[in-house]
Amino acid sequence: MEKLKRILAVTLLACFFTSVHAQHYRAKSTLNSESYRLELHEKALLALDDSSFIKLHYGNSEPGFYRYNVIDKSLDQILSVEPKRNYFEARADNVLGKRLVRFGNRIIINSVGKLYISNGTAQGTSLLGDFGVTYVGGSAGDFYSNAQDIQDAGKGVLYFNVVQDRSFLEESNQIWRSDGTAIGTAQIQLPDNGEFMLLPESVNGDGSALVFAYTPESGYSFWKLSKDSNQLTFITAFEGGEERDFSIRGGVRMKAGYVFCRWADDGSSAWRLRGSTLTRLADECSPFDIHKFDDGKKMVFTSDLDYQLWFSDGSTANTKKVDFDTNILKGETFFDFTCSIGDTAYLRVAHSPKQRKNKYGDYVDFYETAMMAVSGASRDEISITLDAEPRGCFGNSLIVNDVLTNKLSVIDLDTGQKLPISGPNSRYSICNDDRTRSLLILQNKAYCSQGNDGSEVIELSKHEGIFMAPMIPILELLAP
Question: Whole-prediction pTM value?
């Protein structure tokens, strides 16, 4: 018996010193305060450096822009928001584009009606421009005056639109340029007989940008805005546009040129501007859903016609409807771009609508969800995963929600492993805000929010555990 005890003890000790390495992801709460609504989504979140990010907080308690350090967990206000503007800050995500834009090693803060530049400290934050009244109220209605489509042109030059919109009924647009100082922030002088708008994501490699305009002489036309000139240079115009109402809604700068959605009375269409040549790419497009990936070599966009998804590399030959199996994704199908890794875009797909009763007894449409990976238009360049939907990209990994269990996990794209997320907060609500499509990555950790009010910030990190045989059973076995 004594010999058997010694053999068992040696065996268990060998197990003890043999460690098993197992990777998983650990989620923990890093900031939890009901008084700070720190929702993390791409319009109002930007990394300042490797250890901190800037975030807008709006609400009843000290609204403003804050710097959060992910190492020492400090939270410092760098810019307060006037109480009368706080109401508009809360609504501004539907009005403004990005609230925070990188400008060299500093950040541009877009607070409704005002534009600031900051180095991430209260002392290093200063006003660039005040564009007028933000809220009038009463019989005058709401009055928005704010900067939109803010773009860094490089070498210390910034372009943006200033839109003044009274109750969404009257609108006027100005184009501004800034060198990052208040004295160097000025309006571009435009001709009096036209309407001009800086196009989004239109900055070129030489620092110039595109302006779309309507003038009686040139019709619906494109113009070049340069860094060193207050004068616009004519590029080209649409033919036969005098009798129609054109507008540009959504656009991206790609390797092949500037691709955009043209909206007209008789429908929408996708176009490319390269040099001075306009080329029609597709007969339909959705003006607010154009996304580029693979370093600007590829893009996907949706169409309002028959729920289509299109792929393009910016050429007419390779602008095609994505060919997916309609037996897998059935019925009405909606596509929502999540993120991209390398040459592949990941989309959340809603499909196969069904009628279900809600808690009030009313029948409502219910859609199943899935994940689609797209690297081209043909069937061998896409894949569909019915039991998961993407939540965000994390390095070379993809955070997905398991449709069947409502649990999050991480797919390592290098190995194909599906790794669990552990921790007290590893529940379905992590990263579940519809606005949280791109995670903030700092110090090899991902940050997102959870809760209906977004008040809890979750830190997600890769963890390598060492699992060994427990000590107590060995000691018990060796006891006399």
Answer: 0.78
